[in-house]
Structures
1.
Amino acid sequence: MIDAPLSLPRPRWNVITFTALLHVGALLALFPSNFSWSAVGVAVLLHCLTIGLGISLGFHRLATHRSLKVPKWLEYFFVLCGTLAGQGAVRGWVGYHRMHHLHTDRSGDPHDSSQGFFWSHISWLMHTVPMQPELSRFTKDIANDWFYSFCHKYYILLQVLLGVGLYQLGGMPFVVWGIFVRLFVGFHSTCFVNSACHTFGYRNHKTDDSSTNCWWVAFLTFGEGWHNNHHAMQSSAQFGSRLWEIDPVWMTIQLLEKLGLATQVKTVNSMPPLAKVGR
């Protein structure tokens, strides 16, 4: 059994430095010279691509849970979009999330919410956690895939190249909004799934964890905020279950299915009874 972080672990200065620079860079948006509506539009578009198609569909529902199957070229596109979200290398993201489901809210959960809101939101990323050496055991299925390895190794370089491209298109406003502001919003939106969705909201299912459904997190993350539903039915590609629980990524998957681009889509109805309860 892996012990929970009873004392503050060793800082990861590379992550702390990157996070600090990201937040400072986002403040550049306060200067009028860095504002334009077209730059805001670029940020919104990239947020939809990187958080919606990339993190929620690509990293989470596809790579982590294998809730659906798509052609390899499309899977790689979604993984690339997720890589450009700036939330770390893909194998780390997938591995830590699988650990989270295996040990939710207890020893072995990388962002154990019982350790406090700040820890589950961001502090766990900034410190070494006891389960880091376990990552390779949780990502064997993607360890030898050449494109996953490419994105895992060069995710910072890919972000830099995107920044260079945005600068060529629209100068500093495109860089400030399309990189710094967009990464800031996307980063905290995803982190709120780990923190707010284990603290605020309501529960449709009596799972043996603290997961909740939080509408405003779902709005920011294209459906990820229906987190209690997800913990109750983690293999399902559909997160929203009630009429008002809007899940844009699930709508996208339905469209892909109609176009013949998504197959073997797992839903609540396609899962065995025991998979509908618990974690």
2.
Amino acid sequence: MITEQNIQQFSKQCEDIFAQIRRDVIGQNDVVEGTVIAMIAGGNVLLEGVPGVGKTRLVRTLGRVFALPFSRIQFTPDLMPADVTGTNIIVKDEAGNSTFSFQPGPIFSNIILADEINRATPKTQSALLEAMQEHTVTVMGVSRKMPEPFFVLATQNPVEQDGTYPLPEAQMDRFMFKLVVPNPSLDELMAIVDMTQKTMAEVAAPACNGEQLIAMRNTANQIPVAEDVMRYAMTLCSATHPDSECASEAAKKYVRLGASPRAGQSLISAAKVKALMKGRFNVAFSDVNDLAYPVLRHRMKMNFEAIAERVSPDDVIRMIIAEVSKKFGLGGEAKAEAATASEEKKKRLFGKK
């Protein structure tokens, strides 16, 4: 059973994690928070942004802050699946007998930076599918477990299209979040240049190890979700399907294919972590609304009308939230933040009399 001490430890651990990340990464607060939420929840993250905005630096910093082995794979058109997963090689013993020995690839690490993932061919991209979902790799008919915890943090450039291959829907669906990394503000840009002119060294120190990260995940899993909040979250996911019984008007007009059941799983898992980060003992409607964007934006396929009218997935999500909130009588996003656990639930949660 979760205790108040668990909640306090979770909050203190998160403060230490963010404090160390800020020593190396300036700004990008929403991206940093989203990435940490996904890692605690056990999900993979796709970071999309133009070159030079700090995507790779953030992932390297996370490797140090979480004190986990880190492996970088530079995706290029000539990268082969065996270059990622590893392969069997022939070795000879002292007697001259030949045997097969498995040579692990760079994917056998805790944190994988898949840099410019959309530059690899579909065949190579597919080598990540099993690892991202089942945390195993099968080579020559033999399955091997990945070390735990295991995360894939991938980057891609949304602007340059030459020599790139769009990620298939099956792989996009395996990312818990898609986070858009914006350009820094003027003050942030000045701070970045000032810091890098003095030293390029990265000074973040470990603030959490693998065992502590898994313990935080187990704590978050015990956070209760009220039935109304659960129904609201699942309605948001279902509303992205134009042919669903819960289909929103925005989805009917602009969406060709909606979010999968994995979206609902990701939304609830991440919302539990966010609730704890905010010092609450339950998931609120506001947690669901905030996380709907990174969870859903890469899981919806827009139709030609959306492309013609330049309607983005985030625009559709915003319309869906407004429509579903109205159905639930929340009066928009402002009132959606009003959901809190009752005192009786807290007493049951902590075993108080």
3.
Amino acid sequence: MKIFNNIFLRKKILIYGLGKSGISSYKFLKNKSDVYLFDDNKKNNLKLKKKIINLEQIQKINFDRIIISPGIDISDCKLSKFLKKNFQKVHTDLDVLFSFYNNESITITGTNGKSTTAKILHDALIDQKKDSRLIGNIGNPALSEENITKKTIFVIEASSYQLDYSRLFRSKYAVILNITQDHIERHKSLKNYVNAKFKLLKSQKKGSFAYVKKDDELITKKLKKNKYSSKIYRVHTSNLNNKFNEITNKYFISDGNKENLSFILKIAPRLKLNYKKLIKTINKFKGLDYRQQIIFVKKNLTIINDSKSTSFASSENILKNLNGAYWILGGIPKKRR
């Protein structure tokens, strides 16, 4: 654990947002710094009410750091004016993680396929006796892990929100699976959304490695505009059927999941993963809930729950591999700017 000159140690810290990441941040820092809490919803986490402060109190305290939940939109929240005024103090739990640990990390982002790719890679590392921890946007807060050793490897699913707010965080291995238009209601423009994703590469130092989709228009355009310190691998995701003769798992029938595997197979040698064991992991992978999840099979009827697909690009990957499909949609349309 890194301690020397740690910017979160013995500081006045405000944690804004008391969801999973906020609570884990509090538990991690409560004995290391002077920590205060705030949430837009006063009913949240009443067990911690002694540390929850109000708007008036916040204005009177000179905080050294502000740790914000990625789900909070700075431009549309109760502390909007305060956060904009103190924006240089805003951090994420990923920043805290990086400031305390030197561990090897593999961070995966992209519009589609992040969770599946992160889970397969984590499973592969576990199957090969590695101390892997799956954290981030997949639902496991970065600071909730215990018994971290020098051999611990972090597999991190990172959303554009997390990357956008992070200032210190960087990862030895960075993966951008794809980029299509998404979350414009939050980022205000496609350019801002792409920039948030590419913070993952921008923060890398020499000796790091990045893996990006080769035939992705937005990724290619961004790479041409900027230079990066890491070694960048362009991952081919075309002609996929010729690459996976040893993979019998029907979960990987869709082009989207085949693309996810392209990245796994590309990064595996760098991580020194045994190929035969990796294929075994892939063939027994059952998938994640709500992501192309087969929930019913009887005679000529198969029901697939793909409700985690929140963009057309994500849904298209499975729909074009199905015949006679009925596509049931619901929810609130995303706003476009």
